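User: Hi! I'm working on a homework problem where we have to compare a predicted structure to a textbook description. Could you give me the structure for the chain below?
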Amino acid sequence: MKLSLTVKLVALATISFGMTAPLPATANDFDEFAVAQSQFVAVAVPYNYRKYKLAIIEQVPGQQPCWRESGYNPASVDLLLLNFDHTNSCRTAVDSNGYSLRVNGKDDKVAYTLNLVENNGQLQLIADHQDPREADLLIGQTNGLREAPMKINLDRNWQFTKRLYQGKAIQHIYMSNNPSPQVVENIVTLPTTNGPAQTTPSPPVTSQPQAQPTVVTQPTPPAQAPVTTVEGLISNILTPLSQAAYNTYNTLFVPAPNNVQPQPAPNLNGN
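Assistant: Happy to help. Predicted structure tokens:
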């Protein structure tokens, strides 16, 4: 069947646009550059009883300290940045948007999943490959276990680097097995595109008579006897005692709320 002239012109225009339009950056377009390892730390942060999340903290040189290490096997990390406005002093990466693996010179944000696994009395940072035929990678370990933020010591084959795009730095941290990443002098950092969240004003509240809902009482089911385990008993004892600490640590992983001024309560009496 022959195509009409209009269809041919549309198809030609589409092909021409595809040949000239710039393509978005892909993982293969990114490079990496060397950084001072002392300005970074990987931390296993507790968020519940015997559960931990990975956070990577970067210290801005010459600014207020972001953390303090003490002890060994494992080394505890005092998260100083939780005690002050660390906007200009510290950068935090708490998920795959802020950090990822760079394996054999390539980004592997999709192929591998990072997990903190308890094994042999310590936490191990393991990169699980989505293909079960591929071997998992040991990225680092804590060399001990305690109910507090712990330093994750990267394996000798791994180090921190940062993302590079067309000669400019991006605020994205790699854990890389590149033994000799390039050294870049006087690096320029691309500006971030994340601006403050916009708030939509709420519509005015008007006084309207409300119909009273019908309340239906459901019969109360018989109480079930709780199942008691040793771990559950320990969790019930320890978790409330540590809840304040958990809540403080959790602020690392929760976005800061917008500075929205509270609105006065509406007058529903019509006065």
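For your comparison, note the following. The chain has two helices and 15 strands. The helical segments are 5-20, 230-250. Good luck with the assignment!
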